[in-house]
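Case study 2.
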Amino acid sequence: MSNSAADPFTTLPLADAERLDKVCDAFEAAWRDENGEPPRLDEFLTPLDAEMQSAALLELLPIELAYLKQRGRPISPSDYRRRFPTAAPYLEQWLADYPQTAARQLACGERFAKYTITAFVDAGGMGELYRANDAVLGREVAIKVLLRRYRWSPEALARISTEARALAALNHPHIVTVHELAEHEGVAYIAMEFLEGQTLADRLEEGPLPPDEALGIASALARALATAHEKQIIHRDLKPKNIFLTAAGPTKVLDFGLARLAEMQAEPAGSDTSPVAASGNGTATGSRLGTTGYMSPEQIHGQSVDARTDIFSFGCVLFEMLLGSPAFKRGSSAETDEATLHAPLPQPASAAGGLAESLYGVCERCLRKSPAERYASALQLTQELAEIETSHAQRRGRTLRHIEHSLLAAACILLVGLGIWWWQRSAEQARLT
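Prediction:
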C-alpha cells in the first residue's frame, strides 16, 4: 500500500478496506508488468461506488506517479488536475515532489534547430513530444525527440527513421503529416503537423461511443489503412492511443514507429532486424512487436504479418469504441494473449440492433483468429463500412419520412377535429339564438 497524504481506511468499513487493498494490489501488479499496457486509473475507479472511488483515488494516484517517476516519464500536471479535481489538496503535494522538468529534454522558449519550443505535450516509451513554432514558415509543429537513453541506440534510431519514412510516403487527410526527419546536436527528431484535440484513448475514458460516431472514426481509419497498405506499409501498432480525434474534425492515425515498409516485407514479425519498441508503453520488445490487447494472433506468435494484421487491430479498436472496453483484455499480459489466441469474441450485453449490430458484425470478421477469414484488405473493409453507412442513412431517411408522414397525418386529424368542433359549436350557438 502507498503512504498517501490521508488514510482513507480510517473511514471505511473493514470489508471495504480489504476490497480497496485488493484493488491497490491489482493496480500495482499491473504497473509491475512491464510487457503490458500501463493500467488506466479510470478503469480501476469506475467499478467502485462514490465513497470507495474517493478512497481509492487517494491510494492509486501516488502509486501511478511513483511508477512514472521510477521510469523517468514526464507527466502533464494540468491533465491530472482536470481529471481528478476532488484530489486537488493532495494532488498538488504529490505533483510538487515529481521531478517534471528534470525528466524533460527541452524547455519552453528553448531554440531547437529552427524551432522554438512552446510546450511539452506528452511522453511515450521511446520519445517525448513537444509543441513548437517554426519561425521560418510561420506554423506550429509537433517535435518528437528520442529520450536521452535511446540517443545512441541503433534500434531506436531505426524506429524513428522508419516512422518518418512511412509518413513521408503517405499523403492522406487521415494520416498525420511529417515535415522533416533530422538531427540537432546529436538528437534525432521528427517535425510533424501539430494537432489540437485528444486521442481516442482519452475519449474512451468517458465511455463507449455512439454508433454514429464510431462509424465515422472507423471509416476514416479504414481509408487511412487502405492508403498505407497500397504503399506496402503495415502499421502494426494500431490502438486508441495512436488515433487522434482533432478538434477540427478529421481523425488522424499516428505513430508509424513499428510500421513495416516494402523493403522489410519478407521479415517475420519477430525478426531481430526489425525496429525494436520500448516496453514502457506496452509495446513488446525483441521477439514481439505491437501492443498487448491489440496484437493479432500472428504477431503474438512472432510470425510473418501482412495487411490483415492491421485489420485485426482495427477490429480491436472498433470493438472498444462500441462497448467501451478492450475485447480480450484480462488481468495480465499472458492472460490477454491467451484470450486473443483462443477466447471467443465477447457478445454485447443486449442486442442493440440497427447500426450497432452491423458494426459488431464487422468486428466479428476483423477479429477472426485466422487471417484468411478476415477481410482480405483494408479496401474491402472500407467498402463494407461505406455500404453500412449508406444503408444506415437510407434507414434513417425512411424513419424521418415516416415521422414526417405521421406528424402530417396527426396534424390533418387535429384540423379535422377542430373543424368538426367549430361546426358543432356554431350550430349550437345558432340553435340557442
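DSSP finds 14 helices and nine strands in the chain.
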